[in-house]
Amino acid sequence: MDTLGSRLRWLRKKKKLTQEDVADILNIDRSNFPAYENDKRSLDPAYISILAEYFGVDENWLKNGNLIQTPELKKPKEENQNAIIEELKATYEQMIALKDGLIEELRQDKRFLQEQLSKPLAA
C-alpha cells in the first residue's frame, strides 16, 4: 500500500463498500472517485480528514502511509451499539402505536360511513 489510492481502496474493500458508496460519503460525483483510487487525481485534504475519521484510521497514515503497522479498523463501541438498538426499538414502538391509531381511525370512519349508508335517503 504505497499510495493514498491503494490505502483508500484497501479501506473501502475492508468495509465492503463500493466506490459509489465512498463518493456518496464525500458528496462528490461518483464518476470522479475511481481517479482517486488510481492516483490520477489528488484528494482534497478535507476529504482525507473525513475519510480517516469515517474509516477510523490515522489521517497521516491515510495521506502518506506513515505508521509502523497497518491500522486496525475501529469497531463501534458496545455502548454506541446498545444506544442505537434502544433508539431503533423506541422508533419501532412509536411506529406500532401510530399504526394502531390509524387502524382505529379507519374503523371509526367505516362505522360512520356504514351508519350514513344505512339511513334512508332524504326526499
- What is the element string, with H for helices and E for strands? HHHHHH
Number of strands: 0
The biggest beta sheet is recorded as: none
End-to-end Cα distance: 87 Å
Proper CATH architecture of the largest domain: Orthogonal Bundle
- Principal-axes geometry comes out as elongated
Tally of separate domains: 2
Q: Any idea of the CATH topology of the largest domain? A: 434 Repressor (Amino-terminal Domain)
What is the residue-mean pLDDT, rounded to a whole number?
A: 86
Alpha carbon gyration radius: 27 Å
CATH class wording of the largest domain: Mainly Alpha
Count of alpha and pi helical runs: 6
- What portion of residues is helical? 55-70%
Main structural class:
mainly alpha
The CATH superfamily label of the largest domain reads: lambda repressor-like DNA-binding domains
Can you tell me about this structure?
- The protein is mostly helical and 123 residues long.
- The protein folds into 2 domains: 4-64, lambda repressor-like DNA-binding domains (434 Repressor (Amino-terminal Domain)), CATH 1.10.260.40; 76-123.
- It is 67% helix and 0% strand.
- The protein has 6 helices and no strands.
- The protein has helices at 4-14, 19-26, 33-37, 45-55, 59-64, 78-118.
- The radius of gyration is 27 Å and the shape is elongated.
- It starts with a helix and ends in a 5-residue tail after the last helix.
- The mean pLDDT is 86.
